[in-house]
Input
Amino acid sequence: MSLPMSKKITFDYWKHLYSTRTGGMVSSEIRDLLSLSARNDIISFAGGLPEVRALNYQKLEKYIKRSLKTDGHISLQYGDSTGYYPLRTKLIDIMAMEGIEVDEEDIITTTGGQQALDLLAKVFINAGDHIITEAPSYTGALNAFKAYEAHIIGVPVAEDGIDTSEVENTLDRLYSNGEKVKFIYVVSNFSNPSGFTLSFDKRKALLVLAKKYNTIIIEDNPYGMLRYEGKAVPSIKELDIKGDNRNVIYISTVSKLLAPGFRIGWIAAPHLILEKITLGVQSSVLCISTFSQRIAYEYFSDPAWQENIIEFINIYKQRRDTMLESLEKNLSGIGQWSRPDGGFFIWLKVPEYLNMKEVLADAVIEKVAFVPGTGFYVDGRGKNAARLAFCTENRENIEKGIRILSKIIKDKIKLYQSFT
Amino acid sequence: MKKNIAVLMGGRSLEREISIKSGQRISNALRKLGHDVTKLDVDQSIVDNLKAEKFDLAYIALHGKDGEDGTVQEMLEVLGIPYTGPGVYANVLSFDKIISKQIFNNLGIPTPLFYFLNASSFRELGASKILPHIVKKLGLPLVVKPSAQGSALGIKLVEREEDLTDAIISALGYSKKVILEKYIKGIELAASIIGKDKPQVLPIVEIVPENNFFDFESRSKAGDTEYFVPARISKDEIKKVTDTALSVHRALECTDLSRVDIVLDSSSRTPYVLELNTSPGMTDTSLLPMAAGEAGISFEELVEKIVNMALI
Output
């Protein structure tokens, strides 16, 4: 009896039709390992999840009812592509609290900070264009930029932020070659994932470079209001506005001020850039959720929202302190970590020969999760690093989780040392 | 006849995500077949959940630790609930590749030459000193893999001796023991088997990963790996592979279903057995449903066969 002809089976029938940019969209072992962190018996230092349980749900209910009663026919309808105007007035008040003076025409709202990144990538990046980011940098931003096939140049960070000398060297090298950099992306306060804050001197230096090389800085500031100690540093945007207001695009989000579920972010930028971005909004979502924005407007109209921020700060500060104390108790002399003055994240580094992805494999079995450092680089660096989010878990779990994680790290070190 | 079936899925193994996909697909098929279905994410409350109602059957859609190592099967034996797939003993034997490969050796079933080590070998007995000897015996490249882990997590093809330490430490992150195995250059094949008293091998699937090594990345990027069914090998080779797969299935005391992973050596054309899986994936890109499909068995029919065999 002859065998049937071999049949080639291809699962992805549409492979020949996908755009080239999908080549950058890949699954990862980290994602699969972290699927275990979705279980509620896991102590998770993985996601930067705000403590939404600290919000006053009764008040939120009141805001929702008022939104519907007062002008439900507006909040349930399509809105302006630039965002719900009354909310924009509140957002400029928020920016003013951080020293940034803009008016309502200088900002548009977006569907979360992530859409802001996507829109900026859409407006600025052609395939192969150079952009500069911190290294490590926020994964969501890297993914947004990769989706448009940017050539991402990661510049190392120190405790005071991105290495501006290296930024300058990079700019000089490229521009001498007739190339350009489309933008420099930084998370200026309590950066995700490093926890470092860009110093005032470096902010000024970066702005000087942006002007010299005629490029743009995208300043992402989701955590600026969540400062636990120290003095706030003037934003790069504020410095730019005091000059010719040409070189900084500022983005932020209500996710940490209110809640991520609202999916509201915003971009403050020169008018002509905003016009392009607005076209981008129209071609992707038409307009941002009017309903979400309407409720957010109610929330930010009630001065009590600032008490929420104080409450958040108290909670997160205690959790940060607990994590720092636990790290000191368990990994002193073995690892190094950042000591952020605010925000959500601590960046942990262990001996170079350790691979934190493999530590994660052990950790999830022991019911602890975190994000290995390689997720925050485009070039494979970060193997011996990890981002630890202290915002989500209570203090008892933080202590327990760090204890378990530290034991795994120490066991790995012992194992490695047995090879040498 | 309508049955009340608990689909056990998820769990705490590193293959949780694939298990959830398998479990979801199986649940949908069982509903289409007219059964009552309860999906149970396996955790500490699994015993309470299984006792909460009278289940006629537990469909095991778990992969990896606790699902394919005899753990959940033993618990179901205690509870007296019939379950799909091979029994406790078959799971215990096949999950640990060291045990199963030793059985293959004892029975003269070709399997790549291997050595195993564990963390204690290195920590307490200075095993790093024997690595050069292992390299000499196995040659390079060689395969380093956890002895008890699925989905190719922790598997590395080591081409340089200086990369061996990292590969071993990586593998030990996924399992207490690590296998160092001779690399067989050849055609990767999957032989899926179903049947109780007369197990039958479904059409053999040939796997051609984009980067020539079927590691984790290849397994999860379904679009970049090519599959040929039946495998593009001769009639005689198909028979050899089929016979080998059946002898492995029997040697490990399997029943109802299994999937045997084999590499057909390019030069000698000998089928070398890599491992047997007792709870193969059942997602829309998995090998067992693929082979069944080419044999004219739809996914629902496959699930029904598995259910019926478990209830005998």
